[in-house]
Every structure is written in C-alpha cells, then in structure tokens.
Amino acid sequence: MVKAKNSFEILRSRIVGAQDTLPKRLAEAAGYVLANPDEIALGTTASIAKAAQVQPSTLVRLAHHLGYEGFSDLQQVFRERLMERASSYEERLSRLEAKASPGTFDGTVMHGFIDAARNSVDKLSAQVTDAEFAKVVTVLARARTIYLIARRRSYPLAAHLAYAFGKLGIRAIMVGSTNGIDEEIADMAQADDTAFICSFAPYASDTVDLAARLHDRGVPIVSLTDSPLSPLAPLSKVWLEIAENDYAGFRSIAASMAIVSALPVAIAERRRHMQ
C-alpha cells in the first residue's frame, strides 16, 4: 500500500470528499478525528477509539481507506500539524524574515497577506451559493434576537456583526462575558431566537459546548465553519462552509469577513419587506 502524503489539508480534503461514500462507522470516526485534531495527535489508538466511541479496528480501517499503511501513519499527520501550530509567533516571524531579501521584509509580509486574502475571497463565490446565503438570511431575519458566539480567530466576525446589527436596529447579544456567565446568557435564548456561531478548525471547545447546549434547548443555529465534518454542522439549521487561505501559517479571515459584512444589510432589507 502506498503511504498517503503527510499533509493535514490534503487529509482533510480527502475525508470531506469521501464523506458520502464512507461506511457509517468510518464516517463517525472520520468526523471525530477532524473535530479533535489535538487529541488525535496526542492520544493512543485505544484512548482515541474510546473517546470516539468506536473500536480500535475502526480507526485502522479508516487509515487504510484513506491510503495510509496504518493508524500511526495517519496519526503522524496530526502530530506534524500540532508541531507546526505549536511554533511561537516569534518563530514564524523568524522564518518569514529568513525568506525575505534585505530591506524587503515589510513589503513581503504585506503582499503575502494581501495575496492570501485575495485568494480566500476569490474562492468564496464557489464555496457559498446565492441560495445558501439566502437561507441564512431567511433564518436570521425571522429571529427575535440573534445570539452571537465566536472565540479566538473568529471573534472579530461576531464583533463586526454586533456593531452592524446595532447600527441597523437588529437586536443581537454577544455571548462573550468577562465574568464567566456565557452559559447563563445563552440560556436566555428561546425557540424564536437564533444563534449565529463561528468556529474553524481546531474549533474552540467552549463554542462547540455552547452550540450543543443551544441545540438541545431547541434554539435554531446558523453557523460559519470550514467543513461538513465540523462539530457545528450537525447542530446547525443552516451553515456556510468557508475555507480561508493562510500566509506563513497566519490564516486570513477575509472571506468570512465579506460574508458577515453582507449579512446585516441583507437581513435588514429582508425584514423591511417582512413588515
């Protein structure tokens, strides 16, 4: 058997592409490994199988199905990804500096980020159709209150929505307290409200927990995420898939920001015609 190329992005694309053809247990295992990449990198076959609620042999079968000689070969992809992400910002900057010619570092970085942002936005039309965007607008326009949830890299998306919704008179609440009452804030949401949730791999655990909490209470969820195997996808009434480009390990949010810039305007216009 030929060993598959060790690239997390290639592996992710392979799993997403095979999602509809994977047997049920392999699909469940595949969803778990993509949603929990750090645990896959650090765990044993037995501990991962237990957490994923599958047999260890299922993980081995999944590895074979994806072109790996064994589960340890598949696991190595996650270990390499973890090592790359563990590098400090200082280390990333040092690598960038080493690649730039003397006196050109600033311009090299600027154009690198511009190219990453441009490529992300250029792919957006193929990733999100007019019909998919309209479904999101419909759900959010009907919401009494929109609860906004995002962490880490995704936080600026929710912050912009909160600002734009406020300007347009659309009632929204940021679930991001400094005093640790996010669960209590989320518990105020009712079935006639909607939660808008943003999270991308490796998926903030508290974001996923809040999404599950809202889903269990019957609150509709609209999510912005990066894969059909995202833990947010099965919890969402409707979701948009956006894969962003990166520059030297620094990932863009340009395409996601384009979507959240358009949403408040489209929602406000839809509500105008609903009155």
Automatic annotation (TrEMBL):
Keyword DNA-binding applies: yes
MF GO annotations: carbohydrate derivative binding; DNA binding; DNA-binding transcription factor activity
Ranges for domain SIS: 136-273
Alphabetical keyword list: DNA-binding, Transcription, Transcription regulation
Keyword Transcription belongs to the record: yes
BP term (GO), one: carbohydrate derivative metabolic process
Protein name in UniProt: DNA-binding MurR/RpiR family transcriptional regulator
